[in-house]
Amino acid sequence: RAHGEMTMREAIAFSSNVYFYYISGGYGDQEGLGIEKMNEYFDLFQFGQPTGIALANEQSGTVPSPAWKEATFDEPWRLGNTYQSSIGQFGWQVTPLQMVVAYGAIANGGQLLTPHIQAGREPEATSISLNPESLQVVREGMRMTTNYPGGTARGLEKDYVAIAAKSGTAEIGAGNAYVNSWAKGYWPYDDPQYAFILMMDKAPRSNTLGATTIMGDVVDWIHEHRPEYLGIDPTAVSSEETN
Q: In the beta sheet, which residues pair with residue 27?
């Protein structure tokens, strides 16, 4: 859609490709970040690297860069590649596990946690320097994604828990005939305890049912059957059902 002028918060909520084209590569008199500066931030969140989970065959993924393009295609980097990379396209490959670790760091203020599946184990943490004011803008944008007119994750707007989220659509297949639909984020918004990822793999492009809608159904199930994971007293939910 043609959104007109917008803030960073609104660009996150609307998932505006054009806004992030401007930020990454610039346009006209506006200078963009450029791919090298962008890759500094990608490295900060350790994209393109295994998370360290104790499972076999974890994939590293791919972070596009001028060196990667030269080695892969024997071609120089172009401005259009920067635009595409800014919205997770071109050569980007990231695993759901890498992404949930990154969103966990956004939720907890800058701690990358090594994921594990062993009950009772304390995760190892790596502190990354995130500017608190900039981080707050991102969080507020993610909250608006769920509760602001035009937000792309309105399926996660719930009256019993405040969720911060981001939608995602990865185009795949010949002619981009399919999409991987993503929903990711954390809750509760004001006191984050859980980060989440849900990905619908290889859905037809014509499909109107996205991952944020399905994740909304998952959260409804949690509310009914495991409300303690939403920070809700289970007896309170039982009382509501009785009334």
A: 30
Which residues are CB-neighbours of 230 under 8 A, at least 6 positions away?
Answer: 160, 161, 187, 188, 219, 222, 223
Tokens of 194: 């859980």
What is the CB-side half-sphere exposure of residue 62 using CA atoms within 13 A?
A: 15
In contact, 36 and 165? CB cutoff 8 Å: no
- pLDDT digit string (tens) for 32-66? 999 999 999 999 999 999 999 998 899 999 999 99
Do 105 and 89 touch, CB atoms closer than 8 A?
A: no
Which residues, 6+ apart, have CB-to-CB distance to 209 below 8 Å? 203
This prediction has a pTM of 0.91
Q: Is the dihedral of CA 188, 11, 34, 174 positive or negative?
A: positive
User: How many CB atoms are closer than 10 A to CB 156?
Assistant: 26
Tell me the three state secondary structure of residue 45.
coil
Closest residue by Cα to residue 186 from 225, 145, 150: 145
List pLDDT tens digits, range 204-242.
777 767 899 999 999 999 999 999 999 888 876 666 665
| Residue whose C-alpha is closest to residue 123's, from 105, 137, 143, 136 | 105
Token pair listed for 159: 């009256």
